[in-house]
Design a protein that fits this description.
By secondary structure, this protein is α/β, with parallel strands linked by helices. The protein has two domains: about 5-80 and about 155-250, Rossmann fold; about 85-150, no CATH class. It is about 35% helix and about 25% strand. It has eight helices and eleven strands. The protein has helices at about 45-55, 95-105, 110-115, 135-150, 165-185, 195-200, 230, 235-250; strands spanning about 10-15, 20-25, 30, 35-40, 60-65, 70, 80, 155-160, 190, 205-210, 215-220. The strands form two sheets. The chain has a six-stranded mixed beta sheet with strand order 7-8-9-4-10-11, sandwiched between helices. Strands 1, 2, 3, 5 and 6 form a five-stranded antiparallel beta sheet that branches. Helix 2 runs parallel beside helix 4 and helix 6 (about 195-200) crosses helix 8 (about 235-250). The longest helix is centred in the last third of the chain and has 18 residues, at about 165-185. The protein is globular and about 50 Å long. About 35% of the residues are buried.
């Protein structure tokens, strides 16, 4: 794939800690309005790769390309939502969501008005003046997702954003997130340990094995989105799951 065709790509990323390779020759890409998952066991280097893409870590070699521009080692170019929602307990939901705009220097009233435009789409109407402690886990994740979107609506990195939710809430969040992606034309890279989640949400799945962490397989999920609960019990779903288990067992 040529760089101009992709929203984001990594080219031969290698990262070492204490002279030991953690990830090696990582080449992945993300197209517009794609959701791509990175699947692998704990400690294989998935979060290290995300930190490199986000500019938090500088790789020993390789490049990160965003919209055709080399952003290697440049933090603040791509939004990054980690496992915990990291909402500030002393701020209202509205001010938590608007935080990226405040940091960017947007005046408070203007930032709040910009954020308010998205509260309906993100299912947050009525929570504007509430505090994080008053929200359910699912609602906190919605607020964190909106904050991530306002940081950069172009490309987002999500490190297991639904892992802390119970199964029923997680399934509801999956359906909601897929419909939201369609409306807002979002492009996202997901880290997950949940094989079912990866198959249900993704256009493509990269399977990482190691050590050091390498991309062992790319699996294309050739099913229309959004995918309903019937897909989860279909033969096609089980075939994808068997493929993934095979490569994770290497």
């Amino acid at each position: 794939m040529s760089t101009c065709q992709n929203k984001l790509e990594t080219q031969n990323i290698c990262k070492y800690f204490a002279q030991q390779p953690i990830i090696k020759d990582i080449n992945i890409y993300l197209k517009e309005n794609e959701l791509v998952s990175l699947l692998g066991v704990s400690g294989i280097g998935k979060s290290t790769l995300f930190n490199v893409i986000a500019g938090v870590l500088v790789p020993e070699s390789g490049r990160v390309i965003l919209n055709g521009q080399d952003i290697t080692g440049q933090a603040g170019k791509i939004s990054y939502m980690q496992q915990k929602d990291l909402l500030q307990p002393h701020l209202t939901v509205l001010d938590n969501v608007a935080l990226p705009l405040f940091i960017r220097g947007v005046k408070k009233d203007e930032a709040r008005n910009q954020a308010l435009k998205y509260f309906k789409d993100f299912g947050l109407e009525g929570t504007e003046l509430m505090y994080p402690s008053q929200l359910s886990g699912g609602m906190r994740q919605r607020a964190a997702l909106l904050r991530t979107y306002l940081f950069s609506s172009d490309v987002a990195l999500f490190d297991e954003p639904f892992s802390a939710l119970d199964t029923i809430t997680k399934r509801k969040m999956h359906r909601w997130y897929l419909s939201l992606m369609e409306r807002l034309n979002m492009s996202a890279l997901f880290i997950t340990h949940d094989i079912d989640e990866a198959i249900l949400l993704s256009d493509r799945i990269y399977i990482m094995t190691g050590p050091p962490g390498v991309i062992a397989k790319e699996i294309i999920i050739d099913e229309p989105r959004p995918r309903d609960e019937q897909f989860v019990v279909s033969d096609a779903f089980l075939d994808y799951k068997r493929q993934i288990i095979k490569f994770l067992s290497i």
